[in-house]
Amino acid sequence: MALERYVISGAKKLRCGFTTGVCAAAAAKAATVMLISGKAVEQVAVTTPNDIRLVLEVEDASCGDGFARCAVRKDAGDDADVTDGTLIYASVRLTDKPEIVIEGGMGVGRVTCPGLDQPVGAAAINRVPRLMIARCVREALADGGRGGRAGAYIEITVPDGEAIAQRTFNPRLGIVGGISILGTTGIVEPMSTAALIDTIRAEMNVRRAQWAGPLLVTPGNYGETFAAQTLHLSGPAVLCSNYIGEAVDCAVRLRFEGLLLVGHIGKLVKLAGGIFDTHSRTADARMEILTAHAALAGASRAICMKLMACVTTDVAIDLLEESGILNLVMQSVTERAGIYLCRRAGALPAELVIFSNARGVLGMTDGARSMMDRMRRNMEEQQ
Question: NCBIfam families attached here (predicted)?
Fold first, then answer.
């Protein structure tokens, strides 16, 4: 049944869902109950890590020689989650040892890089879901009179997991073969900033486990492509989306040797105003910042008024070029953005490169070239 829990995002009321970890735990509990009782299970009750009780529908239940298998369908609520509607299966066998063993089968990813929640070689079933699966199975064993005497071997599978995983961050994280079984609270909050930031941190942990050298960070795919094709930085980049400040903070905590931020003028101009969350709902100020720097470069009132009326930074850049002050403005914007970046980074060396798709590099901080040279050497040494 649908979870009747909501959050407010802007002016919208959005329905919450539940995680793949909850699905796996519920399916494992249902399979254990069915294995002990020999009866079909249509619904199963579980309590999430944040103490919310859910009653979930059980699908595709079956029994075989010494095992039972059940599925629970992922409900992401109003979140744009590629795993929404996916069946998460658990197959359970009872054992004569008290241990609960949890493994991932078809469609569950396998960890290949250090730095993630699970060690290299393990199934990508995170710690909290593992604890929840074990707790739910132990509850079912106790309710069935098997508590303390029996254990269980549990295999989690996701039939479409390998295909779905290609639309997630798993390939970037070095998780192969399927999706991850995730969730710290058990509840999916639509458009969750915390979930996005957790993904950024996970990717940075993987990069840190691979090397400590300067880290390439970019808001999105355009920046990653520009870094590879124009700056010849072929190593992996961390995509930080709008959360530049969170990425810088994480790089500081992980003690990287440096950070190079590469981004489009439409994003990084905001940094010159001290804006580290560049989502438009948080702050815009692109034209205000460009206009202020144009005025410092000697632009007339008429030019400043035209700049304020520009809809995109590309149009504003063209106007600055026509006015003969583009280089002065970009030098000023880059310098100011660099000041804010270094202030946030503290002792961590931090440089930036600002570009546009039409004009290429528009500005870079003083130490950016030497940091890029160092990054290229590091990449060559690793090959």
Answer: cbiD
